[in-house]
Amino acid sequence: MFLHNIGEIDGEGAVSPNDALVAPSTRTYDYVLANPPFGKKSSMSFTNEEGEQETDDLTYNRQDFWATTSNKQLNFVQHIRTMLKTTGRAAIVVPDNVLFEGGAGETIRKKLLENTDLHTILRLPTGIFYANGVKANVIFFDNRKASPSPWTEEVWYYDYRTNVHHTLKKKPMRFEDLSDFINCYNPANRHERKEAWDADGNPEGRWRKFSYEELVARDKTSLDVFWLKDKSLTDLDNLPEPDELAEEIIEDLEAGLNSFRAVLTSLSKSEKAA
Q1: How far apart are CA 77 and CA 223, in angstroms?
Q2: What is residue 159's predicted lDDT score, i.e. its pLDDT?
Q3: What are the start-end ranges of the H helices in the chain?
Q4: DSSP characters over 94-149
Q5: Cα separation of 124 and 132, whole Å?
């Protein structure tokens, strides 16, 4: 932070060493832009009676949270929502498990759709924000005051993942790569958006909306939505370069392992509850 001229060496620090999830923020904000720390679980280290180091999952029993969970990513989504003013707006980088995980994840997604206007989800390729194999998204939502009816009417998706290939060295993602998303987002007036996808006219369109009713009807209110076909699975004449192909295979395998870990964690919690 100091290298970017944020904070003063001899003044009050701009970064707190405390656990941000322990208690509500003392201030509320108009905007929160965040890339929360990567890692599925919150945990603490301690020394047991034998003098050995152990770790234990952390859960946060906060009254302002919708659900209690040890999933760090889900907790940060809840925490950031509480940091917003009634008219506050947020954009948060989250891994795919936030969009589909059951249990607390389902509860939090439903509450997010009901209590905020969750209007946009940007799906990104692997390896952009997280390690290889971990797929990232950016969720955009506006906070709202309490209401008997859901605030979210529709969620707009931009798929910048399917058939998109980036490598950190040879082909890194640049600002101009997101120019089409910015145009589709229509920051001047996001209420006047137009779909790029059309089942008959443009089935390859990357910009598509789904209604609140469609999303809550999905299993576990999953927001992990995709519709484009992966051309690499069918177009054998236009395969990527061997090194890119190998990198994609590694990323897919690592993504699969992460999914299996999520399933294993869920099964372990179910057994403990039983």
Answers
A1: 14
A2: 97
A3: 72-83, 97-100, 104-115, 179-185, 212-216, 242-273
A4: EETHHHH--THHHHHHHHHHHHEEEEEEEEEEETSSSSTT-EEEEEEEEE----SS
A5: 12
Query: 125 and 104 in contact (C-beta within 8 Å)?
Result: no
pTM of the model: 0.79
Contacts (Cβ under 8 Å, ≥6 apart) of 147 = 115
Q: Which two tokens stand for residue 148?
A: 């008997």
- Measure the CA–CA gap between 261 and 240, rounded to whole angstroms: 29
Query: Quick check: helix, strand or coil at residue 181?
Result: helix
The separation between CA 103 and the C-alpha centre of its own chain, rounded to angstroms, equals: 17
DSSP helix/strand/coil, 174: coil
Q: Which tokens go with 83?
A: 């940091």
Please write the tens of the pLDDT for every residue from 55-97.
656 788 899 999 999 899 999 999 999 999 999 999 999 999 9
Domain boundaries of the chain, sorted by first residue: 21-273
Which residue numbers in the chain have pLDDT < 70? 39-57, 130-133, 232-241, 269-270, 272-274
Answer whether CATH 3.10.20.880 is correct for domain 21-273.
Answer: no
